[in-house]
Amino acid sequence: MEFTINRAAFIKAMNNVNRAISSRTSMTILKGIKLVLDETGLILTGSNTDISIEILIPANDDEAKLQIMEPGAIVLPATFFSNIVKRLPGETFKLTNASGLQTKITSENAEFDINGQDANNYPHLPEVEVRNDLTLSADTLNEVIGQTVIAVSKQLSQPILTGVHFILASGNLTAVATDRHRLAQRSVAFDDSDVNADIIVPGTSLTQLQAMLDEVENVDVRVAENQVIFQLGENTTFYSRLLEGNYPDASRLIPTEKRTTLTINARDLLQTIERAALLSHEGRSNVIQFAITSEKSLISSNSPEVGRVEEQIFAAETAGDDLTISFNPDYMREALRSFGDEQIQIGFKTALDPFTLVPTNNETNFIQLITPVRTY
């Protein structure tokens, strides 16, 4: 195996493949990055069994300037190899694996010899039978992931809740995530009404995928029995396993009655919450209180160990019953960030019932739900 390549182009591909590589895996070979060189180009592969990423650097890529001298394959230790390539002095580098598993990397006056592993021992990527296939805008998919993945559970004791539930039916995609303390749901329409699927994608997979979406315009989504494949452009394929089980019916958690509503700019309220959280985080309970009346609305936090903060907020509109409710500021901050600079309506039923946050225009079919904290 022997080739030369532009270092910047290689690093770009390598960084994305490294998203699927974990140093904590029990399979030593999966700590490495697989390189396969043939007449079509250079294929980089990384996997942690849950996520697999494969990227082709084509032989005719003008930016990569790949020159193929000798086809071949090798698995190199991902972290060590990445650190070497990132610190090489030249614009290009040469990789040579003449015989055995020892690989030589050269660039200008720098030369490294590192030991690899046999590529034949690397697990094969899953061969799947695609049951549903649709194309989404990368911007839309990025937005849907960002607005829902914040609500997945971090508790491995509830594995089904560590993923986002995607329901594709009748030309509509609905994404739902909940950790039983909060919920995020977003719906978008797509063109193909014949696509029907009900899958749960791990939140960790979606977070890694989201970081790669800025580089493409559209994403081809292919659903198989226990895998989902995201094709990013012509040369990047992202595989993720699916979570098995029945996701809870999230629609039952969303209240239909609102006795108190408050309309406000999400970013303005976020800034107030962040100021109050400075104090709540220093206390033991990490709770913020929201008092809403027809005259004024206040955000406050009281910590006997630290002190007290109180700030009046100026809503565009307040309607309904007076209400005082307590909540976790971290949940509220993440929910508010997902709306950006939009005008939102917060709807309350009682001080003990979950409350909802929705855009006032609701053109995005988007809802966030937060369960209050009982303080008595």
TrEMBL record:
SUPFAM superfamilies on file: DNA clamp (SSF55979)
Subcellular location per the Swiss-Prot or TrEMBL entry: Cytoplasm
Keyword presence, Ribonucleoprotein: no
Pfam families for this protein: DNA_pol3_beta (PF00712), DNA_pol3_beta_2 (PF02767), DNA_pol3_beta_3 (PF02768)
Gene Ontology molecular function: 3'-5' exonuclease activity; DNA binding; DNA-directed DNA polymerase activity
GO BP: any one term: DNA strand elongation involved in DNA replication
InterPro entries linked: DNA_clamp_sf, DNA_polIII_beta, DNA_polIII_beta_C, DNA_polIII_beta_cen, DNA_polIII_beta_N
Lineage: superkingdom: Bacteria
PANTHER family with a match to the protein in the record: BETA SLIDING CLAMP, DNA POLYMERASE III SUBUNIT BETA
Protein name as it appears in the record: Beta sliding clamp
Species name: Weissella paramesenteroides ATCC 33313
